[in-house]
Structures are given as structure tokens and as C-alpha cells.
């Protein structure tokens, strides 16, 4: 019998993605489930691959922010049942290695041989196909699938359960001030979580007007880095340096006139704007090899940094992928309780067939494209999203 097929968004090469028919995933292990994807988000991290700025090979199905309904279940799965609505961390983790045991699920050593960390649909992150597709296989499902209330309520909030990390790894404590660089979904989520956690002042730095407006709407102070030096603007408003800073931009940061990439500019700004003994959280992505880097050193992931200044100020820093599993249960409950509504970052809600256009527009940050969610099996609205915040 021919294998069943489904539609999935595949990477074909720089700036090229296409919806193709591929083999529908099957259970490969008793601990697996197959999820019918109701919602999958496009992430800024997908754009690094989309632009050909990673070692990603054609054929990969993107999509690491996924949720849906349990369609098939292996006999080893005990905590879930068919028909459950679930959301998955973007990390794939086994729940049993030393790092998982300590809550560091982004660095699981059991799912991607020779590497600490696995993810769906991402270069170097293991053999797991992405969820910008009608179905997705989830390994170690009892550990990796978090059960949600049935129905469709809060669908767009639950898909965004990954934003807490940048603030956490900066060492943030309530009452402190914080500067978040980048007002993409990651930056806006970091800013929002700082507000939920009782920050005094939250500064959000970007140049895209719609994104700065979104930051203002949730109570942050927007800083446009093209107007004048971002650090000077923050210190002037704050009266002193801030306690914490977050890099939600990563290695494709641009210089103040927006004309060229400057991979160290955000890190340098953070070293300048953070008070002595403060902390820097760096969820923004840096890669060990970048085929499109502006210079030879950064092509090998060597970013020059004022390390002397960092030392002098006794700054601490945290970095790496988000240990989603360490937070998502609590964030789920804050959403259910009506205390958090992260869907305010979503700008567009589309069908899988619209994904090719959406990648292009999101990549250019055009037409207010901030965060796109895809419904690969239809059934929801399409078009501009209105979170009503
Ligand atoms: N650590 C993790 O687990 C994790 C998870 C998701 C995303 N990421 C990474 O986080 C970063 C942000 O993701 P996103 O989805 O929000 O991406 P995004 O590309 O939508 O947002 C980045 C924003 O940074 C702004 N920017 C560029 N240069 C800047 C500068 N010099 N100063 C201030 N802002 C500047 C851009 O205008 C853009 O709005 C990416 O590098 C992504 O790969 C990390
Ligand atoms: Zn593990």
C-alpha cells in the first residue's frame, strides 16, 4: 500500500520555500505520538535558515513552535489519550538525561547524537521534521507534549509558550529595570514577561514602527535606535544604567542606519547599558558557522566583544536556547487564568498555502508582519490577526 501523504512547507534553498506533498509521519517508537497540527508559528529563527545563513540543506520541513490534537499514540504513552489538545516545546528532549533531570531540556544529550539539544525542523538539531505541516511526530511524548484544555480557546496564546527565557537568564528580579534589544516576537515576549514579573522600567529597542508601537501598548518605553544612540536614550530616561538587558536580536543585528549587519552591536550596547554586577540574557541566536557573514571571523562564529569592559563591570551572562519545558506548564496556567495573553504579538493568521508569501513578507518585516501563525489543517480564520488587547 502506498504511504499516506500530507502537505508540508519545505525549504528549497535561500529565499525559497514551497508547500509539497510528503510522506505522513508514522509512529516509530512506542513512546511516540503523531499530532494533527492545528497551529504552527513561523519563528525569527526560521528566517536564518530561509535566508541561507545557516548550514540548512534543502528538503528540511520548517516549524518548531507547534500544537495540535493527538491523532495516533504508541503503546508506551501513558499520560495522554487520542484527541487531547497538546502543545510542544520547540526542543525535543528525552526527559531522562542529566541535563533534562536538571531542567535544562534545551541541552538534552539523548536526542541528537554528538550534540546537546534537539528541535523540530531545525538545522543541526536532529532528525525531527517540523510542524509547518499537517502532521508531526513527537518522540518521548509523555515528556514533550503538554496537555491543554480541550477546544480552541486560547489557541493563539498557547502556541507562544516560549518567551520567558531571555529575562530568566539575565538574572532578573522583580522591581528591576531592563532593556530589551529587538522587538520581534522574542523581544516583545521578553518585555511582556518582564512586565508580568514586576519590572520597574522596561525599555524596548528596535526600528520597526509597528513593533515599537506594540511594545508601548503593553507598557514599555520604546527606543528607536535609528534616532540616536540607543544606550544614551535609555540612560537619559532611566537616570542611570539598567539592571538587566536582553539580546533578542542575535547575529543578524544591523547598525543604526540599518544599512549593514554588525554582529556585535547589540552585545556591545548591552555591556554599555547594564550596571556593574547586572546581568545580560542572550536568547538571540549566534551560530558557529555563517555562510553569509560580513567578515571572515564571524563566518566562523568568532564575534569580537569588549570582554575587558564586561569583566570590569562584573557582568554575568546567560545564553543558549530556551528550556521551554522548565516554564511552559506555569505559563499555560497563567493563560488559562487570564493573567497572560501573549497572542498580542501575532500579526497574521494564515493557511499553509499562504506560507510562501508570509515568509517573504516576514523576512522583509513588511506590512506589519511580526508573528505569523499557520493553521495547516484549516479550520480557523485567515488574514490579519486581532488579539483585541
Ligand atoms: N534562544 C532561543 O531559544 C530562541 C528562540 C527563538 C528565537 N531565538 C532567536 O532570537 C532572535 C529574535 O527572534 P525573533 O523571532 O524575535 O526575530 P526577528 O528577526 O523578528 O526580530 C529581531 C528584531 O531585532 C531588530 N534589530 C535588528 N538590529 C537591531 C539592533 N541593532 N538593535 C535593536 N534591534 C535590532 C529587528 O528590527 C527585528 O525587529 C533571533 O536571533 C532568533 O533566532 C532564540
Ligand atoms: Zn535529555
Describe this structure in words.
- One of its GO terms (molecular function) is oxidoreductase activity.
- Its cofactor is Zn(2+).
- Belongs to the zinc-containing alcohol dehydrogenase family.
- Residues 30-142 form the Alcohol dehydrogenase-like N-terminal domain.
- There is one protein chain.
- The protein is α/β, with parallel strands linked by helices and 389 residues long.
- The protein folds into 2 domains: 5-161 and 324-375, Medium-chain alcohol dehydrogenases, catalytic domain (Quinone Oxidoreductase, Chain A, domain 1), CATH 3.90.180; 165-319, 3-Layer(aba) Sandwich (Rossmann fold), CATH 3.40.50.720.
- 23% of the residues lie in helices and 24% in strands.
- It is built from 13 helices and 18 strands.
- Strands 3, 4, 5, 8, 9, 16, 17 and 18 form an 8-stranded mixed β-sheet that branches. A 6-stranded parallel β-sheet has the order 12-11-10-13-14-15, sandwiched between helices. A two-stranded antiparallel ribbon has the order 1-2.
- Helix 8 (230-238) packs parallel to helix 9 (265-273).
- The chain is globular.
- The structure holds nicotinamide-adenine-dinucleotide and zinc ion.
- Zinc ion binds at residues 93-94, 97, 99-100, 108-110.
- The site of zinc ion has 8 residues, from helix 2.
